[in-house]
Structure formats: C-alpha cells, structure tokens
Amino acid sequence: MKPSNAEEVIFFEDLNRRDVPIVGGKNASLGEMVRELRAMDIRVPPGFATTAGAYQRYVQNNELGPLISSTLGAYNDGKITLQTAGQAIRSAITAGNWPKASEAAIRKAYRALSARSKKKDVTVAVRSSATAEDLPDASFAGQQETYLNISGEEDLLIACRKCYASLFTDRAITYREAMGFDHMQVSLSVGIQQMVRSDIGGSGVMFSIDTETGFDKVVLINAAWGLGENVVQGAVTPDEYEVYKPFLDRKGTFPIIEKQLGAKEIKMVYSGAGDVEPVRNVPTSKAERARFVLSDEEILQLARQASTIEKHYGQPMDIEWARDGLDGDLFIVQARPETVQSRSGEGLLKRYSIGDHGPTIVEGLSIGEQVASGRVCLIETADEIESFVDGSVLVTSTTDPDWVPIMKRASAIVTDHGGRTSHAAIVSRELGVPALVGCGNATHVLHDQQEVTVNCAEGAEGYVHEGLAEITVEDLDLSHIPDTRTKVMLNLANPSTAARWWRLPADGVGLARMEFVIANTIKVHPEALLRFDTLTDENVRAEIETLTVGYPNKADYFEDQLALGLSRIAAVAYPNPMILRMSDFKSNEYADLLGGAQFEPKEENPMIGWRGASRYYDPAYIEGFKLECRAIRRLREVIGFDNVMVMIPFCRTPEEADRVIEVMKEEGLERGVNGLETYVMCEVPSNVILAEEFAKRFDAFSIGSNDLTQLTLGIDRDSDKLASLFDERHEAVQWMIRTAIQKAHASGAKIGLCGQAPSNYPDFARVLVDAEIDSISVVPDSFVQVKKHVADAETDTDS
Fold first, then answer.
1. 555-581 pLDDT, tens per residue?
2. Which of 423, 465, 525, 789 is catalytic?
3. What's the CATH superfamily of 9-195?
4. Strand partners of residue 647
5. Neighbours of 188 (CB within 10 A)
6. What pLDDT is stored for residue 459 in this prediction?
7. For the structural domain made of 199-341, what CATH number should be given?
C-alpha cells in the first residue's frame, strides 16, 4: 500500500526515495536503502518515521499555526529579533500535547522496534527530516536536531517534540528564507532508528566524490572514535582515507590511495546513570589518537558501499556510517545527495594564485581552492556571534549549524578542529567561502583585527599568511580545447594538488617527480630509515620516531608513504600513462632530508655530480633505490596502477643503464613484464649521441630541456650571472632536440619532452610539432595555451 500523510508512522521498509513529501529527505533515503540495497550488503539499522501529516496535526492540535505566523511576521517587520522569535516558537512547540492517535502510533511502533531487536526499550537515534531538506538543490548540513541514546517511550516522545521545535532554530529560519521556502509549507518528519553502538566503536562521514575538486573516481572517508556527531559538527580532526573506485571490483588490488591519521581529540559516548544528557564527550586515550579507526579491510568495505549507493542513486552521495563496537559490523545511518561539486560547472576552471605574502602563521586542511584576505574576527563561542564583522576572516574553535548566518558573511573561515567532512567544511563549500579546518592552534595564534591572507589554493594543505597578499583569479575555459595528434601531457609533483586538474583533457602525466613526495611527505633520507640504529643526531632520531609511528620496520614507512603519495597522481592520469621519474635529488638536496647529512658527500658541483642513475647501483645508495623500486611495484601491483611507467634520469652511458636495469629487475621491475614500459631522460648530450644504444635498453625517451640546455651550452642553470644566456630555444639546443627525435623514431622508440620550455614559451610547441615529437608535457597552468599552439602548428603542417 502506498504510504500517505494520513498515517502517523511508517517503518523504513515501507518507504522509498519518492516519499520525500511524506517523511522528508533523510527518512525517504533510509527507506530506499532498506528496500532496495539490503541485498547488496548495505546494512541500515531498522526504524520508522513519523509523517509530515503527523507534524501538521500536532501543529493544528496545539493551535500553533497563528502563533508561528504572527511571531515570524513580527520578526520580518523588525519588531523582535531572530533569537526572540525562534525561542518563542520552539517553547510553544515543546510545551504542546500529542494528538492521541499520534502518541499511540509512536508508542506502538517503538514497542515493535524493541521487539525486533529483542531488547526492552531499545536505544534509538531520533533525527529530524524536513520535507525541504536533502534535496539536490537545497542542502545545508544539520538544519534540524538529532538526539542520540534515547530509551523509553516517554523520553522518545520528548525527543520527537524537540525535533519538531528544531524546525524553528535560528539557523533553520535563516536558511529557509535564503532558499525561498515558505515556513508554513515545510513540515517535519522524525526518524526513529535503532542505535548502532558506535560509542564503543567508531563512526564518520564519507563522500563518493572528492569534496574539494569534484574528482569523481574516489571515495573520501572520515573516521573518529565514538558517536558520529563530532565528525559531522567538526568537533574533532578525524582520520582521512581515500579510495580509488574503479579498482574496487578488480581482484588482487588494494586501491587505498590516502591514509591520514587524525588527532581525534575527543569521542562522544553514552552517559552514565544519573547524567542529565544521554550522551557526553570524553577525551580519547593516547593509544586511540595514535592509531587509525578503520582497518584497511574496513576502509575498502565502506568504499564499496559508497560506490553501490552512488550507482543506485545515479549521483554523488554524502553518507554517514557507524561501526558497532560489540560485533564490528558496519552500518549506513544516512545518505543524501552531494550538492556542491556534483553541480559545479565543468566548462570553466578557476585558478587562484597568490603573489608575495607574509610568513605562514597557521596551517590546516584547505577547503575551497581559493585565496581570501581580511581582518581576523576571533569568536570563541556562539554567544559572541553578534559581534562578527561582515567581510572578516572568521576564526573559531569549531562551528555548528548555529553559525551559518555569519559564515555566509565571512571572507574566509579558520577553525581549530574538524576534517574535510565537518560542518565548517561542508557549509563553506556550499557558500563558496574558502576555509582552513583542523588547524589545531588558530584561536591561540591569531588575534582580533589582525590582517591575514587565507591560502587554500595550493592543494590539500592550506595556510594563513601574515598580512594582505595580492590575489589573482584566472578562468581556464575547458569547453573549446582542440584535439591534437601530438599528445599533450602534464608535469605533476604534488599529490595534494594533482586532483584539481582532473578535468583537463590531458593524455596522461608525462613527468611525475618522485622527489617531491620524498621531500614533503616522507621527509627522511632512505638510508636514515634503513640504518636508523647508526644515526648519531638524537634530535633527528626523535623526529624520525615521530614520523614513523605505527611502522615497526622504518623502511616500510618509506615504501608505504611513497606508494600512497604517488598513487594520487596516478589516479588522475589513469588509464593514460603516468611516467614516473625515479628520485633525482642532487647530493646537497638529499643531505637536507632528515638524517641525510650523515650519508651524503659534500660536492663542489652537485648539479653534475652524484645524481640520477649513478646513485642507483652505487653501494652507498643501492638499498635506498631498492626501496624506491619496491614502492613502485606496490603502486603497480598492489594498489593497481599499472599505468605507471618508470623513467631513469641523468643516465650518462649505456653501460650505466645496464647496471640500473639489473637492479630494477632484481626488485621485480622488468621491462615488458606486466605491461611495464621504461623510459630514459634525454638530458645529457651522450643520450643524443648514443640514442641508438639507449633505444636498445628503453622503450622511450623524454627530453629534459633544462639539463640538456645546461650541458649543451655549458651553463650552470642555477647561475644568476649566466641566467641571460640560458635559453632552451637556442639553435644548438634545438639541434639536439631535433636529432634526438629523429634517432629515436629511426630506432622505433617513442620520444617526448617534459622540460620547462613549452611551459615558459608556449610557442616553442611549434618547434616540437615541426620535429614530429610524440608528446609534450607541461605544467597544468600552461596546458590550455600549449594545446592550442600544438593544434595550430598541426593545422599549418597539414596545409
């Protein structure tokens, strides 16, 4: 029988997604999953919903309609404040009496739910579900209230009244007016759902899309100990995991591409006997803070569930989950459409950049990929909201839905706590306001009226800089990019910024720089991990101990973190190739890594010293190179990115190539096996002179125009005095490039260019097209311009 508003309550299994007018978005979605997805291993705790009709009858029975209308009218006329209006309406609702039929139906359904669970007075979560929320075009986080650990019929009836009253919180009133909803036309359903014992387990939020870039091939999961409200409200900094969806059904792969340990400062648990509130927050233990909430198997299980739910609904989803601490089972407790990235324009990419800026004073997780400047308005509690100054940078410990009215008036938002799925993060995205969350110390370091720049345009990590910096905004139009025969690829290094470029129609990643991940994520010299017991600097030892927590074998830290970091670049390229250059630090750069000074020589000219291939077979570094190889094998065979190809830099002679190839083979990286292609950088004149010999050992060449120019013209590329002479467009360098292309093709090898020249001089692409190069790899900012230059050059060649 079709559900109707004439009923008082309806069990979830009798609802579906079309019943939003009857039970609101949350409850309709729960019913849909119970009915349609149970057979697909989506577990939803049982429960029932009161109808919108029950709410309307409650309002009529207590003659609340005239009071609500007159009170809101007085507020709109400026006679009373929003706070006064909201409080008056909420007090009237919570003081009302239940219609007999409604009360009887709620009691009966609760008893039936208790009987199902084989528990007397089963504990339930009582959630509000408005008939105008969780719609594809209208969804702010947490407009109405949720009450947890409710037990007994009387307490349930009280909680339901409170849910009705929460339809008129200050934030809900403000939101409806902003969205153009008539207050009297919005009704509220209450969802009563059996509690999952996540108070002794864990819980969190996940999105079936990257929340910052809209990259649609990943699932983002946040997790914390205890009940899930702390993650939703941003009261804790949760663990963060990212999973590559296309590999979830591929046997033998383990497609987790990010794992970040969160502070998880507190957890919400059931209160003890005699406590006024049914739940409370307690500090987490040191052991809980130091370990991940979810195992790898649980991460993948949740990701599969998110993917299943997304496929069923046909759109990206925002999902809340909980793990029962008694039996370890995972449950889905809410699912709603994602409403920001899934509806952002695909034809235009905005790029924010920052000019000279002051020192960095606060760091956190960046939300919004924007930059904004302003004066700090530091607010400690919601009681101080009225003091907020429009256009200021809001700095606070955490936000909840009460803060929405001022969040929309802020130029940027900075919080001490929270992750990418916290209230502050979700709302700031919907408002289009950049935010920095999980900073830890923002409210201690920043002060009122301080001039700052909030920089969220440099990847996953964001920064607050001292002072007002110059900000540039550029629109990259992706709607009219021409097709080209010559492949145009990307040069990428930073895993945290890679996903922002996923919409570019690139032919892959022509240069992925391993050293960036080593320097910025791993931070430790590989020999310092392999020979940790020999380190003489106690401060270095302590720093490495902190970085490698959870890794009994410190070398595993290098392999694991390198594979994870690189996987985020490979994910953006897949199924196109990602050409990965093995580490190309100079000895002075290696020495700057933690513990590196103990293992590196001091060279007069590191630029042409012990670098690239010469290190890989040397007894002083060969074990470090083997760690690199193991990380790449893990990246290809365990995580699943078999699109990753290996490139050897600064390989001076064919004999040196043979020695490197032998080491790689020993570590399971053999040319032609499992589709592995190997590349050699063409950046030393000997690579051009002996191109035929190198082509016997490698599948392809990639021209490094920076080093090739340096060694052709005899100019140290780091020399200020010679900078005016350094020109990759010089006739001698062009001769080298043309000759390398001719010899490579004559030998049956592919050849591309990954140096800086086309990025610096987009018209240089014409020279490469005329020479019939196979591919050009450029920095993302130059992609659109270079692609057009290539298309023009190909058109001229054809004519």
1. 999 999 999 999 999 999 999 999 999
2. 423
3. ATP-grasp fold, A domain (3.30.1490.20)
4. 581, 679
5. 30
6. 76
7. 3.30.470.20
pLDDT in tens, 54-67: 999 999 999 999 99
**Cα separation of 595 and 754, whole Å?**
31
pLDDT value, residue 347: 53
Is 754 an active-site residue?
yes
Instruction: Give the three-state DSSP class for 286.
Output: helix
CA distance linking residue 68 with residue 63, whole number of Å: 10
Q: Hey, do 9-195 and 492-514+553-587+600-798 end up sharing a CATH topology, with the first three levels equal?
A: no
Position 723 scores a pLDDT of 77
Exposed/middle/buried for 346, CB within 10 Å: 0-12, 13-18, 19+?
exposed
- In eight-state DSSP terms, residue 247 is G
Q: Which residue has the higher pLDDT, 797 or 441?
A: 441
The amino acid that residue 651 corresponds to is C
- From the list 160, 163, 651, 754, the catalytic residue is 754
* CATH for the 348-475 domain, from 3.40.50.1820, 3.50.30.10, 3.10.490.10, 3.40.50.300: 3.50.30.10
Ordered DSSP codes for 493-548? --HHHHGGGTTS--S-EEEEEHHHHIIIII-B-HHHHHTGGG---HHHHHHHHHHT
String of b and e for 541-573 (b: at least 16 CB within 10 Å)?
A: beebeebbeeeeebbebbbbbbbbbbbbbbbbb
CA-based nearest residue to 502, from 577, 421, 571: 571
- Percent pLDDT > 90 in the chain is 71
Backbone φ and ψ for 474, nearest 5 degrees, come out as -125, 135
Average pLDDT of the segment spanning 292-311: 97
Under the banding of pLDDT at 50, 70 and 90, the label for residue 134 is very low
Q: How many residues in the chain?
A: 799
Residue type, 660: V
Burial pattern 26-48, b for ≥16 Cβ within 10 A else e, equals bbbbbbbbbbebeeeebbbbbbb
Task: Evaluate the CA torsion angle 651, 716, 736, 511 in order and state its sign.
Answer: positive
What CA dihedral angle connects 222, 225, 229 and 230, to 10 degrees?
A: -80
* Segments in 190-285 forming alpha helices (H): 229-233
What pLDDT does 136 receive? 44
Share of the chain above pLDDT 70, in %: 96
If phi over 0 gives left and psi between -120 and 50 gives alpha, with beta otherwise, what is residue 438? Answer: left
Q: Is the dihedral of CA 568, 570, 575, 576 positive or negative?
A: positive
Gap between the Cα atoms of 263 and 440, Å rounded: 9
Domain map of the chain by residue range? Answer: 9-195, 199-341, 348-475, 492-514+553-587+600-798
Residue pLDDT, tens place only, 237-270? 999 999 999 999 999 899 999 999 999 999 999 9
Residue from 569, 561, 433 nearest 512 by CA: 569
Concerning whether 312 is annotated as a catalytic residue, the answer is: no
Q: Enter the tokens of residue 552.
A: 């009994």
> What's the rounded Cα separation, in Å, for the pair 535 and 595?
7
Taking only the tens place, the pLDDT of each residue in 661-682 is 999 999 999 999 999 999 999 9
Instruction: Output phi, psi for 354, to 5 deg.
Output: -120, 135
Q: At what angle do helices 731-746 and 705-713 cross, to 10 degrees?
A: 120
Could you confirm whether domain 492-514+553-587+600-798 is CATH 3.40.50.2300? no
pLDDT score for 483: 93
What are 330-374's pLDDT values in tens digits?
999 999 888 776 656 555 577 788 989 999 999 998 888 789 999
Which tokens sit at 121? 């007075």
> Exposure pattern of 664-681 as b/e (b: 16+ CB <10 Å)?
beebebeeeeeebbbbbb
Beta pairing, strands 266-270 & 256-260:
unpaired
Q: Which helix (DSSP H) or strand (DSSP E) does residue 85 occupy?
A: helix 82-94
